[in-house]
Structure formats: structure tokens, C-alpha cells
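As agreed, record copied across for absentees:
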Amino acid sequence: RNVSLADVFEARTIIEPAAVRNVAQGRGRAAAARELRVLIAEQAAVIHDPDAFGKVNARFHERLVSLAGNQTLTILVEMLNEVVTRAVTAVSQVEDDGDSVATRRRGIRSQERLVTLIADGDAEGAEAHWRTHMAVVGRVMLGQQAKTVVDLLDHF
């Protein structure tokens, strides 16, 4: 349907912060935090490989939503992440002087902050932080070359 990439990011920005709130206020938040930290470490290990980073980053986002416990939202986010993974990879491959790696590092630091808020049971803080994170990531992605889902196909 020639959906804009902005539309995809908006959907994620609606879904993920609400899921984060559920994870942070749940009884399993300590285990969730441990699991998310493993995924953060995996991203850090492949920070210089845009393809690998995009895949692990997508797993982080998918797991974040699945930990909230709603299977329908999990399936929906998996579909959205197919599009987003391509966008992250496309943006990461834009030639620059290390800005892409620096952007990925900032994203990892934001994820680490989120996991701390989840582990502390700060549902309101976690939701607010992740809403801001998602808005910033959306602006970064949309500021690059791929503006629509169809445009992403040009990168592959």
C-alpha cells in the first residue's frame, strides 16, 4: 500500500511504550531485565556490522514487546520489525565518518537506561523514556534516505 516509513514508526511508538509499562510493573521484571541485557550485549558485540546489528536490534524490540505477554502484539511487532530492520540496515550503510556507529552506541545506552528503569519497577519512567527513545529513533531513520517502505527495497 506504499505505507510511509513514518507510519510504521508511529505504530511502533504507540505499541512499545505501553508494552514497556507492562513489563516494568510485572512480577517478572528482574528476569526480563536480565534477558534484555543479554540482547544489549549482543548488539554491542556487532556494533560495527550494520546487518548483524539490525537483526539483533529487531530481536531486542520484539522481545521487549513479547515480555509484556500479549501474543497478538508480539506478532504485530514482528511484522513491523521486518520493515524496521531493513530501514536500520539501509541507514547504517550510508557512508559517513562513524556517525552510524555513534548513533547505534547512543541507542544501546538508551536501551541500558530502559532496562534499569524496568528492573527498578519504574513503569511510568520506563514508558516515558521509551516513548522519547522511539520518537528520536524515528526522526533519525526518517532523516535518512528511505522515506517509504517501497524505498527500502531499493537498498537490497
Notes: The CA atoms of residues 109 and 115 lie 10 Å apart.
